[in-house]
Amino acid sequence: MVDIFQEVDEALKQEKIExxxxxxxxxxxxxxxxxxxSTGATSFYKSWDANRNKTETAALMKALEAEDTGAxxxxxxxxxRTGHKVIAQLSQAALLLKDQKIxxxxxxxxxxxxxxxxxxxxxxxxxxxxxxxxxDEGRIDYLKKLSNNPKAAFYWHANLESATxxxxxxxxxxxxxxxxxxxxxxDAIPAGxxxxxxxxxAVYSQKAELNRPESEAGAExxxxxxxxTN
Length: 230
Fold this sequence. Notes:
This protein is mostly helical. It folds into 2 domains: 1-135, no CATH class; 140-211.
């Protein structure tokens, strides 16, 4: 499939995992803080929970820097809470991709995508990657809601990934073009993503034209002639 998210690709490389964590840790910590605030409880609990949050962050960083990173992260995932667990799972998937264990990585992305307790942005990221690396034909369902929510952080990536899914796996260029149409006349989109979308739109438009039934193409060609005759 087309490379839709270069910065994520970089983050998914072994040597970039720490950078990936630094980029998304604020989302994780913010989600945990919101959870604490919503549950209320006592000031003692809040103090204890904040300290635990710092402890888990430090433990996750230590796991990412361990000599056997895979084993350290797996152990961390077994004994931590949702926010930190998700970023650890994403790191697990990154290591699996590095080792060409694509199906195993895709399974992790799908697990995160199905977890309603996952922070929204990270669940959306996992949804995009689940479609990108997965094999299950029904995986496109992960992006249906996301690709229709312009306020979502990964809205553009969801539409770009949906377009490549329909074009490459279903040869449905009409649906692919519909997902790419949202990129038209919008200068607020990141340049790299916009360029890819525009390039794909041109390619898929040509393929859609080539795949049109001859009867439809012939009818359009004959229409002007019939008008002239009348």
